[in-house]
Design a protein that fits this description.
This protein is α+β, with helices and mostly antiparallel strands. It has helices at about 55-65, 90-110, and strands at about 5-10, 10-20, 25-35, 40-45, 75, 85-90. The chain has one domain: Conserved Hypothetical Protein Mth637, Chain: A. The longest helix has 18 residues, at about 90-110. The radius of gyration is 13 Å and the shape is globular.
């Protein structure tokens, strides 16, 4: 297993995300390495990056994938950037397992081509 884009902290999981707004659909696209070797969870949303719409769509998407209420998901870094840090409050191990499954489903759906 390669590098993972999340880190467990007290009472939460921090996730590094690369968001593509106006991406045609709301979906996770798996895990990918950046040029610096850091891993990110790739996500796309239909919403445009205006008035917080894309960020709101991202928090809903991440919440659904993690199996937690949207109120537990907050963007703690990069709110106006493509690369973001998201905090998901709850059991870090269970959340990581849920995100791992969602990323695997995305990779299987896309045949690993993204």
């Amino acid at each position: 297993m390669g590098a993972r884009p999340w880190t467990a902290v007290a009472g939460a999981l921090l996730v590094d995300v690369r968001l593509t707004p106006k991406g045609g659909r709301d979906a996770l696209d798996g895990i990918a390495p950046l040029d610096n070797g850091r891993a990110v969870l790739k996500a796309r949303v239909r919403a445009a990056p205006s008035e917080g719409a894309a960020n709101a769509a991202l928090t809903g998407l991440i919440a659904a994938a993690a199996g937690v209420p949207a109120s537990r998901v907050t963007i703690v870094g990069g709110a106006s950037a493509r690369l973001k840090r998201v905090r998901i409050a709850g059991d870090a191990r269970a959340i990581a397992t849920a995100l791992e499954s969602a990323a695997a489903r995305a990779a299987a759906r896309d045949g690993g081509t993204r």
